[in-house]
Design a protein that fits this description.
single chain; alpha/beta; TIM Barrel; 8-stranded parallel β-barrel; two-stranded antiparallel sheet; 10 strands; globular; binds glyoxylic acid; binds magnesium ion; metal-binding
Length: 302
């Protein structure tokens, strides 16, 4: 499983950012051909992205390209040009505004053909699906099961808020007037359930007030608490915060390893399924919870 605590958005139309992104500590970098690229710059951006993939040094991170959504005229060329030119340097294609499972199946078929035509290993390129409108959310279970290439479901709050007519312009924050609870709870949980039921990662979307690190931290903590694996970052200053928030704390990691050790001893040596660890009773379900935290902690190098 690839680590995706921080997923850095880089506009494909900006060669300077494409260069700079290679030195940043984001777990994933996605090179964007969609909404951060103006219509007049789409073709140039494809060339920039293919060149950056071919000549850049992307070692140690997951690299994705976000193509345009399937209601546009650009999608098929985005996929064909970039994957033919640089498919061996690419981990995933991100498909935005996915509204039904057929769109993921379309991308899967196209990738299969390109892999055959170019000699890339079959199934090499994964898919990330953005859920960012009401139709996508309603169809999220079918979308999540649409292809073995799928690796993540990604929440797209900006498009989503527009799609449901949420009464606010500030992406990621609670809409004014919504004074109790979390206006995003249902959406996040819905995406998380579909992801987990299909062994996919669940990734939270962007926080557009890039100078407001406190706000970013608060929003990220919420989805991390639910179980999300990571979040988009739009600016280098958000990267370290995301990496920290979507990793377990050192104390939780140490606690998880202690549970695993104690439980292993209890079941194999003492032949007991429930034992005390300090003041806490642990059993098989505790082991499963500890395994989740320990796996994330090991991946984060704790
Ligand atoms: C991201 O694509 C969003 O719409 O929030
Ligand atoms: Mg979007």
């Amino acid at each position: 499983m690839r680590s995706r605590r921080s997923c850095l958005a880089v506009p494909g139309s900006n060669p300077r950012f494409l260069e700079k992104a290679q030195g940043l500590p984001a777990d994933e970098v996605f090179l964007d051909l969609e909404d951060s690229v103006a219509p007049q710059a789409k073709e140039e951006a494809r060339k920039n992205v293919a060149a950056a993939l071919r000549t850049g040094d992307w070692t140690g991170r997951t690299v994705a390209v976000r193509v345009n959504d399937l209601s546009t005229m650009w999608t098929y060329r985005d996929v064909i040009e970039v994957v033919e030119a640089a498919g061996d340097a690419l981990d995933c294609v991100m498909l935005p505004k996915v509204s039904d499972a057929g769109q993921v199946a379309w991308l899967d078929t196209l990738l299969t053909q390109i892999e055959k035509a170019t000699g890339l290993p079959a199934g090499r390129i994964g898919i990330e699906a953005q859920i960012e409108d009401a139709r996508g959310l309603v169809a999220v279970d079918a979308i999540a099961a649409a292809s073995p290439r799928l690796e993540t479901l990604v929440f797209g709050p900006a498009d989503f808020m527009a799609s449901i007519n949420m009464k606010t312009l500030v992406v990621g924050q609670q809409p004014p007037g919504y004074t109790e609870g979390d206006a995003y709870h249902y959406v996040l949980m819905r995406i998380l359930m579909a992801a987990r039921a299909n062994d996919l990662q669940a990734i939270d979307g962007p926080y557009l007030q890039i100078k407001d690190l406190d706000g970013f931290t608060k929003v990220a903590r919420r989805s991390a608490a639910l179980g999300f694996d990571g979040k988009w970052v739009l600016h280098p200053t958000q990267i370290d915060t995301a990496n920290e928030i979507y990793s377990p704390s050192q104390a939780d990691y140490d606690h998880a390893e202690a549970i695993l050790e104690a439980y292993d001893h209890a079941t194999t040596v003492e032949r007991r399924g429930a034992v005390m660890l300090g003041t806490e009773m642990i059993d098989e379900a505790s082991r499963k919870m500890a395994e989740v935290i320990a796996t994330k902690g090991r991946a984060a190098g704790l």
